[in-house]
Predict the structure.
Amino acid sequence: MHALPHDHTGARIKRLRLERGLTQTALSDLSQVPYSTLTKAEQGVKPASPYVIAQVARALRVDVATVIGQPYVTELREDQLDVLVQPIREALDVYDLGADPDIAPRPHRLLADDAEALLVAIRAGEIKQAATLIPGLVLEITTAAHATPSHEGWLLLASTYRSAYDIASKLGYGDLAAIALARMDWAAERGSSAALGGIYRYMRALTYLRDGQYRTGQRLTALGLNILEQADPGREREVVTGQLHLGAAVMAGRSKDETLAEDHLAEAERIAAGTGEAATVHYLSFGPTNVKVHRVSVLAELDRYDDATQAGRSVQVPKEWPNSRKSHHYAELARAQMWTGALDASFENLLRARKIAPQQARYHQTVRDTYAGLEAARRQLPDSFLSYGNWLGV
């Protein structure tokens, strides 16, 4: 049998617990995680859910990234992605220095085309390509915005900072993602965009979701919805508003508030009926399909895995949907199926997630934890399963 990775999430929880001199009972009491759930996670019998990870991290006074082991430095080095992180950090750090005299920016139209291509690459799952291009583009657009300040220039810079956030998040660099988000807000304010202000609150709320700070996340989504009321009526405002409701639904689901989660899903569904599929409006992938996909996620967060699996089977993903969203959906569905004992179906969806967006799936926490759960649950593992684990680096 292929050995469970020594440094899986449960093993890290155990190590962190012992470093603080806590018994399993003590950590269970501090985190409000059931004792049996905690012991199974530490043993690798069952993977810790995002809710459990967040509760344990708060109890141990560490960030979630420490518990789940991000960023995955060894794999990043193998893929030659680690060397791309520092240039992104440096590009984000010169936001307020004005125009760089050594940079002659191209016309706005050409910069906008490149920024759009970058958004497309990220949603296609081409993380390495995007990470390679983003530093130079951020520097050029930063100089352009300072040299000839305009509404369009600042909004283009905000959009490019948003792309930096997407890349940092997918690679597991939470600190860098937070910096990129702050830069996005800074530029969006100068461009006076209520829509981008709403998107910023949505993305910032997601960082609090990952850290288990649901109340703060809910306050941010509420603020985002209020800001959007200042935007001009139209499809753009509707799409961003609907996406905020979807984020709030997952937030409520993870905090085990089923009624609130359903209220947000219902409102997003109502909005999506009017907008239709709007995958390219700020590249949020909003629409009826995204509402259905988020329902699967919410049901899983509520520990209703059978219902999540059933809902997931009914989702028909459009061919034109971004690969990043497709891969994420199949990873979420695989997690729910693993918890119901549908191990073969779960692994099939992990394979789908990898095939559609391999660079994203390799660094996706749900993919890695679901694989670990499947590995612990099976006695006989096919060669393809072992190969998948080697690819993940576990």
